[in-house]
Structure formats: C-alpha cells, structure tokens
C-alpha cells in the first residue's frame, strides 16, 4: 500500500510538520477526485458547468487532457495516414523509405530526448515536436502531384526529430503527473483520446473514398489532415510548465529546479546507472512498434482496396480505445501493485499467443509475389470472407493498446520522479523507433510476408520473457518519496502534499 498522510479527526496534518522526512507523513498516491488547494492563481481554480466538473487548469487531469488532444491531432492523424498502408499511396516504397528516415532520426533523438525535455521544459519540447507532423503530411500532398520522393524522405527525417521531442514530453507527463494509484487510468485516458484522433482521421479517407475502388488517396484527404495537425501543434502552447502543476492534495511533480545541459546529460547516464534494471524492458520497447509495418503494409495495404483499408483503420484504432480502457483500469485495481504487474505480464503473454496465433493462420493464405502480381484483385468489404480478417485486424489494434499501456505502466511503477521518467520515455521512444526503422527497411527490401510475421511474433514473445525478472523483482507496491527526491535538487517539503480535504463526500487518502 502506498504511503499516506497522517491525519487527525478533523483532517488536519498530524505529523507532517513534526517529522517531514518520515515515510508515513505524506500522500504519494492521492487521488485526483477533489479540488486543488485554495487558489493562489486562476490556473488552480476548478470550474463547474452545470453538472459537469472541470478540473483546475494546472491540475494533472486537465494537463493530460491537453496533451492527449495534441497527440489526437498530430500523431493521431499521422497514424491515420500510415494506417492506410503506404501513406495512402498505391506503392509502399516511398512510404517505407520515408519511414526509415523518420524512425532512424527518431531513434537517435528519442533516446536523448529526456535531456532536452528536462532542460527546455515540457511545454516547449511538446510544441516544437508538433510541427513535424504538418510538414510530413504536406509532403504526401506534394507527392500526389509531382512524384518527388525526396520531399517525403526529408519530411520523414524531420518528423523523426520532432516526434522524438513530442513523445518524450508526452511520456513524462503521462507517467509523472498522476499519483501512483491512478497511473493506469491516466495512461488509458491518454491512449483513448489519442487513438480517437486516429479513428476520426480514418473516417476522413473513408468518407471521401467510400465510392472509390482506386488505390490512392485524394488531395482533400491530405489537406484535411494538414489543417488538423497544424491546430494540434498550436494547442501545445496552451500547456503550463511542469513546475506549476499541482495535484489535488497540493503535491507537486518532482523535477530539477535548476537544470543545465551538463546536469541533464549527466542525469541521462545516471538514470541508466541507478536504474540498470530498466534494460530488461528494452526488448519490449523494441517490439512495441516493430509490428506496425507488417500490419499496415503487409496486411492492410497488401490485401485490401483503399476504402476497405480506411474502414480497417477505423476499426483498428477503435479497438485500441477498448484495449487501453480494459488494461488501464485493470492496472489500477485494488490488488497490490506487485501482484497487478505479474497479472499484466501473464495477460500479455496469453493474448500474444492467441492473437498472433490467429495471425499465423491468416498469413499462410497469401504471399508477397501473389499480391504483387499485375491485375491482382484486392479485397473489398463486400467480398466474401472479409469478416475473419476484419476481426483479426481489430484484435491487432486491441493488442497494440494493451502492450503500450502495460509498458508505460511498468516504467511508471519504477519511479515517480519526473526527471527520471522523462529519460525513461526517451529510452522507450528511441529504442521503439529503432525497431520501426529496421522493420520498415526490411519491408522495403521485399522480405517475405511470413518472415516479417515470424519476426513480430517471436520478438513480442521473447521480449516478455526477458522482462519477467524485472516484473518479479523490481515492481514494488509503492516508491517512497525519499527515494524519488534523490534524483532532483528539490526537497521533500517543496513537493509533498500540503493539505487533506474531502471532496464529493469522500476523503482523499
């Protein structure tokens, strides 16, 4: 059980002032149900519109919502485009080469992005990251007219830099802002809103191409995506800096008050030195985007026409919402966290065998030479036998959300320190992107579909086995505040809760 703030009958602080360094004197996993402390500024005042309660602007729920909508509009639209297979183009070659450039730069920048996020701040890092998505989609609009492959490749490389920054900032917010008892729900809320962007993004090409059996996406589709990604990049400027965020119990995010480039590069090294066990998660990081190329290009693009690919995209991303909800809320159940971690690992292993076993049965039915033959008729949603692969593709989406939710939760269970979690997020996105770059290159070299499928299934199962020692030995029921504070220049008094209170008839513990 997480440590809690000692209280007297009236809810007043009993021991915090007497011994502020005692593990029992503070709330480290208080809920977010109540209102923030007495307002010192407009950003700390909650609001109510009729029966709807709106959290304070500088509260973790509101800030997470803003980040989720930035990702809804930027990476969400990117996912919708890539989910069409080949970026919506008839051939996947240009898209593959662009994505190799993207994930190559992403892997390098992403790995070190925690340093940039800790030094520049979350808001600036996230806002700079959003710009690349607009330029990336603009490159496909250009390609529709001039077939110049250079622009999409350049845009992909630029997006890799931008995405490395954006996803590091996002991961740090999602894992460090919530209290311990709410991390699974926060991750699921983010993942559901983010993937709703991909769902709505997939509805754009579906609506515009619903009566078309052609192989490419029209200009209006790309223009619609460009408008949305530009809005998302601008929305990032509405965030507050992490140092201003205040939880319902008055506690603050553990950060560096005075970061320098030197301190943060050293901090990157120290993160690996202090938390060496995180390396056991690296294979799971590598696997987390490895299968996208196979699913988007070798299943969706290979077998289905454009309108059916768009429908599949809607179903894929909708299933991600369901996967995030199921796993996120299960991870915040009342069972001890160490037990929940083991249960999550077991659930992932079971669905890895079940879903990818079904994928093996499907993949045996076709080969790359077969679908690449001139005159090959791609499957439409009216084609007999479509229902089976439709459900398989939905389960692939559910699985992706389950995997990502669990990986983020595993990292968040190791620490509550925002500085350290920014580095964890950077490691995750950097290694994840290296895997994606490798897989896009393998696909660009026209590897057999079955070989790509086998690499996905084998890596997923193998990475779970490698991660098991960390799950068994390093995920604890709570992380003491004294331990979190060691990796910053703040004191316990600066970040600990400042009050207890009651909200909606329920005391926050």
Provide a concise account of the structure shown.
This protein is 64% helix and 2% strand.
Written description of the protein model:
- The chain has 509 residues and is mostly helical.
- It is built from 18 helices and 4 strands.
- It has helices spanning 60-73, 75-83, 93-120, 122-146, 150-176, 183-208, 219-235, 261-274, 282-287, 290-303, 306-331, 337-363, 368-372, 387-412, 418-444, 449-473, 481-485, 492-495, and strands at residues 47-49, 52-54, 502-503, 506-507.
- The strands form 2 sheets. Strands 1-2 form a two-stranded antiparallel ribbon.
- A hairpin with a 2-residue loop joins strand 1 (47-49) and strand 2.
- It is globular and about 70 Å long.
- It starts with 46 loop residues before the first strand and ends with a strand.
């Amino acid at each position: 059980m997480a440590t809690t703030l000692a209280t007297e009958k009236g809810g007043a602080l009993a021991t915090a002032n007497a011994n502020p360094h005692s593990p029992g004197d503070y709330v480290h996993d208080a809920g977010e149900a109540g209102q923030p402390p007495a307002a010192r500024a407009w950003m700390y005042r909650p609001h109510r519109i009729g029966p709807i309660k709106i959290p304070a602007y500088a509260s973790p729920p509101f800030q997470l919502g803003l980040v989720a909508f930035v990702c809804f509009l930027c990476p969400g639209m990117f996912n919708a485009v890539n989910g069409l297979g080949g970026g919506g183009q008839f051939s996947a070659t240009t898209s593959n080469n662009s994505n190799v450039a993207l994930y190559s730069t992403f892997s390098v920048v992403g790995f070190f992005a925690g340093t940039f996020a800790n030094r520049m701040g979350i808001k600036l890092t996230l806002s700079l990251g959003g710009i690349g998505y607009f330029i990336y989609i603009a490159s496909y609009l250009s390609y529709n007219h001039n077939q110049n492959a250079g622009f999409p490749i350049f845009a992909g490389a630029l997006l890799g830099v931008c995405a490395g920054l954006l996803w590091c900032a996002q991961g740090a917010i999602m894992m460090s802002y919530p209290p311990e008892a709410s991390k699974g729900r926060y991750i699921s809320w983010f993942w559901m809103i983010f993937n709703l962007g991909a769902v709505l993004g997939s509805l754009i090409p579906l609506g515009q191409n619903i009566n078309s059996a052609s192989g490419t996406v029209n200009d209006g589709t790309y223009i619609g995506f460009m408008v949305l990604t530009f809005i998302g990049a601008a929305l990032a400027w509405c965030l507050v800096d992490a140092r201003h965020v205040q939880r319902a119990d008055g506690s603050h995010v553990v950060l560096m008050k005075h970061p320098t480039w030197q301190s943060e590069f050293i901090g990157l090294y120290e993160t690996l030195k202090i938390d060496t066990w995180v390396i056991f998660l690296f294979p799971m990081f590598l696997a987390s985007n490895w299968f996208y190329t196979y699913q988007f290009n070798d299943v969706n693009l290979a077998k289905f026409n454009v309108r059916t690919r768009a429908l599949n995209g809607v179903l894929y991303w909708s299933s991600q919402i369901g996967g995030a909800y199921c796993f996120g809320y299960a991870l915040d159940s009342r069972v001890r966290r160490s037990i929940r971690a083991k249960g999550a690992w077991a659930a992932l292993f079971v669905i890895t065998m079940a879903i990818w076993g079904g994928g093996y049965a499907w993949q045996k039915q076709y080969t790359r030479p077969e679908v690449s033959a001139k005159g090959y008729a791609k499957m439409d949603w009216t084609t007999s036998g479509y229902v089976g692969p439709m459900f398989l593709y939905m389960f692939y989406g559910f699985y992706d959300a389950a995997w990502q939710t669990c990986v983020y939760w595993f990292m968040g269970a190791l620490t509550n320190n925002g500085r350290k979690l920014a580095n964890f997020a950077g490691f995750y996105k950097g290694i994840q992107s290296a895997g994606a770059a490798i897989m896009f290159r393998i696909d660009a070299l026209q590897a057999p579909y079955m070989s790509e499928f086998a690499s996905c299934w084998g890596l997923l199962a193998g990475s779970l086995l490698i991660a098991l020692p960390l799950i068994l030995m390093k995920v604890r029921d709570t992380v003491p505040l004294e331990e979190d504070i060691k990796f910053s220049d703040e004191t316990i008094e600066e970040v600990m809760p400042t009050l207890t209170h009651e909200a909606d008839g329920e005391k926050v513990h």
